[in-house]
Specification:
Blueprint (H helix, E strand, L loop, with lengths): L1 H6 L3 E6 L7 H10 L13 E7 L4 H15 L10 E4 L14 H24 L18
Parallel strand pairs: 1-2, 2-3
């Protein structure tokens, strides 16, 4: 998992809320991906969060918890737009595609914004920043 995170340009978390928080299995995976100390796979990886819940507010609470965790992990986050999806089986086709045009439009907009955010973060994290390593192993300093 750590290798897959390292190879990615960004991480998009799409998750339900469980008891108004992050599902335990997802939180455990995030914890493993950030350890041992000094090998945090999430540092400087642009992240986004999309959530769903049967009610209107559950995913907002989960996403707030997730933002706190990602902040600690030094993972830049797309803060706006936000994507809180109320789960309604009638909004989706049998194959999982989105039937509800309002939801589809929201998700298209979110993904456009997330793509632009990833590009901005990657450009800002380009080699040459203090703390980055040169191919020869030396670290940049002031």
């Amino acid at each position: 998992m750590k290798d897959a995170i390292a190879a990615s340009d960004g991480i998009l978390f799409v998750s339900p809320e469980y008891n108004r928080s992050i599902p335990g299995a997802l939180k455990n995976a995030i914890d493993w991906g950030s350890r041992p100390w000094g090998t945090n796979s999430f540092a400087r990886k642009p992240t986004g969060i999309i959530g769903t819940s049967p009610g209107s507010i559950g995913t907002a609470v989960m996403q707030s918890s997730m933002r706190s965790v990602l902040s600690f992990l030094d993972a830049p986050q797309l803060n706006a737009p936000e994507a809180y999806i109320k789960f309604d089986p009638a909004s989706y086709n049998e194959d999982g595609s989105v039937r509800d045009e309002g939801t589809a439009s929201l998700l298209r907009h979110y993904m456009e914004e997330y793509s632009a955010f990833v590009q901005r973060v990657l450009a800002a994290n380009a080699p040459g920043h203090i703390g980055d390593e040169h191919p020869d192993g030396a670290k940049l300093t002031r």
